[in-house]
Amino acid sequence: MPDAARFPDPGIPGTPVTSGMLEALREIVGDKGLILDEHGMQPFVTDWRGSLVGRAAAVVRPANTGEVSKVVRLCHDNGVAIVPQGGNTGLMGGATPWPTHRGILLSLGRMNRVLNVDPVGYAMTVEAGCILQAIQDTAAGHDRFFPLSLGAQGSCMIGGNLSTNAGGVQVLRYGNARNLVLGLEVVLANGEVWDGLRALKKDNTGYDLKHLFIGAEGTLGIMTKAVLKLWPAPKDVCTAWLAIRDVKAAIDILSEAYAASDDNVGSCELLSRASIDLVLRHIPGIQDPLKAATEWYLLLEWSSSRPRQDGTAGMSEKLEQFLAGQLEAGRVLDAVIAQAEAQARNMWRLRESMAEASRAEGPGLSYDVSVAVSRIPEFIDRGIKAVLDVLPTIRPYPLGHIGDGNLHFSFMGPIGMDRQTLSQYSAGITRAVNDLITSMGGSISAEHGIGIEKIDELAHYRSRTELDIMRTIKRALDPKNIMNPCKILRL
Ligand code: FAD
C-alpha cells in the first residue's frame, strides 16, 4: 500500500499518464520495457528498507539512450513527471516515487553494458545501468582497479552511484564518486541528449557540466553513460582488525598511518562494539575477529600497486611494525592481521553487512553526517548525550568512514518499540543531531544524499542563498519540473 500517511502529498506536479500515452510508451520500449501491473511494479516503488512505499502509473525500462530520450521527450511534451531509478539501494528515498506520483518510474536496469575498456588510458565507458560489482570485476580483468566500493555493490548501479555522489570505503584515498568520472552522457528534461562522454583529464572549456548532474539525484536529467577513471590494480594488500582505546585513538592511529604506510592507507573504518554485535546477531557465517574489553574497533587496510618483492618489507611487515608501535603507545589494545583472503573477506563482510543487520533488527534511526575528522570524538560524545536526552532507552551503534569525517550515527529503537512509536521521537532526535553537527561546522548528509528523507532538513539548514542557487539551476534545466520532482528541493 502506498504510504500516504507517512509521506503526505507535497503537491507533486505533473499530469496523469493517459492510456494513449501508455500505448506511445509501449511503442518506444516494447512489451519487454513496460511494467503496468501492481505486483510487477511493487519492488520498484518500495525503497530498500521497505519503509517507504510510493506509486507510479508505469515502470518503463528503456534499452538504450535513444529510447530514454524518446520516453523523456514524450513525458516532457505531456507534462508527465519521471522518477529515475538504478539499483534502488539508495537510503534517502530518492529513487522511490511519492505516494501521490502520477507519472512514470524510469529504470535503467536494462542498460547494463560495458562499452569500452582502455587499460592504457586508465578509462572505462559504461552504460548507467551497469552494476557496480560488474564494473569492479571488469576493471580487475584488465589488471586495473575501479575504487568505488560499498555494501550494496552487488545491486547498485553506476548511474545511481554517480547521481548520489556515493562514498563508500575507499574515499580516503580515491575520493567520492565525483572524483572517479571523466565524462557523462545525459538525457535532459526535454529529451535532448547531452554528449559529454569525453575521456579527458584536462578540459577547461567553460562550466564543468558533468558536476551539475553528479549528486543531483535525478532532478536535473537522466545519466545514460559514463566514462570512469581506472587505477593500477592493488598487488599487495594487508587488512587488520584493531581493538582500540577510544575514538580519539582511532584518529591518532590514522593520522600516523599515512606516513608509516608510505601513503598507502586504503580504508579506515570505525566500528562500535554495539554495531559489531548487531551484525553477529543477524548475519550468519561471520566471525568476530577479536573480542576485547573495549567499546571501539578499527578496520584498517593498506594496499599498494607494487607487488611484494623478496627482501623488502611489504604491506604486512610495515603494518605489523606500525601496530607494535601503536600497542606500545596504548592506542591499540589488541590487533589481528588477516593471514588469508578469507580472513580479510570476513572482516569486510562484518563492516559491509551493517545496513542489512540493522534492517533485520527492527526500526531505527540513522544519520549520515560529516564533521572535521579531529572533531569526531567530541561529536560522538555530545551527540549520544543529546539523543539519550530525548529517548533514554534508544540503542546507539555508531560507526563510520572515519578518515572522511563521515559517521553513520545510528540508533536502534528501544527493545519492543514499534516503528510508529519511534517515529514520534524522530523529529526531536533529528533536530538534536542536526543542530549539533551544524553547530560544529559539519554536514547533515555526507554521502547518502537528500532524497525525500532529508528534504525538510536541507531547507532548514542551508542558507537562502544556497537554496536559491539550487532552485535557479533546477528551473533552468527542468522548467516543467518533471525530473524527480520534490526530491532534494521543493520548488
Ligand atoms: P538508486 O537508489 O536507484 O537511486 C539513487 C538516486 O539516484 C535517486 O534519486 C535516483 O532517482 C537517482 N538515479 C538513479 N539512477 C540514475 C540515473 N541513471 N540518472 C539520474 N538519476 C539517477 N552509499 C554510500 O555512499 N556509501 C556507502 O558505503 C553505502 N553503503 C550502502 C550499503 C547498503 C547495504 C545499502 C543498501 C546502501 C548503501 N549506500 C551507500 C547507499 C546506496 O547504495 C548508494 O546511494 C548508491 O549509490 C545508490 O545506487 P542505486 O543504483 O541503488 O541508486
Give a written overview of the molecule.
Strands 12, 13, 14, 15, 16, 17, 18 and 19 form an eight-stranded antiparallel beta sheet that branches. Helix 1 (19-29) packs antiparallel against helix 3 (65-78), helix 9 (273-282) crosses helix 12 (354-361) and helix 13 packs antiparallel against helix 14. The model has no long low-confidence stretch (mean pLDDT 95). By secondary structure, the protein is an alpha+beta fold. It is globular, with a radius of gyration of 23 Å. It has helices at 19-29, 38-45, 65-78, 132-141, 158-163, 171-174, 210-213, 247-260, 273-282, 315-328, 341-352, 354-361, 376-390, 419-439, 455-461, 464-477, and strands at residues 34-35, 58-60, 82-85, 104-107, 114-118, 123-127, 144-145, 181-188, 193-196, 221-229, 231-232, 236-244, 265-272, 296-304, 332-337, 364-370, 395-396, 399-401, 406-412. Among the domains are: 114-232, Uridine Diphospho-n-acetylenolpyruvylglucosamine Reductase, domain 3 (2-Layer Sandwich), CATH 3.30.465.10; 236-352, Alpha-Beta Plaits (2-Layer Sandwich); 362-448, 2-Layer Sandwich (Alpha-Beta Plaits), CATH 3.30.70. Flavin-adenine dinucleotide is lined by residues 48, 83-91, 94-95, 108, 128, 150-152, 156-157, 159-161, 163-164, 166-168, 217-218, 222-223, 355-356, 447-448, 451, 484, 487.
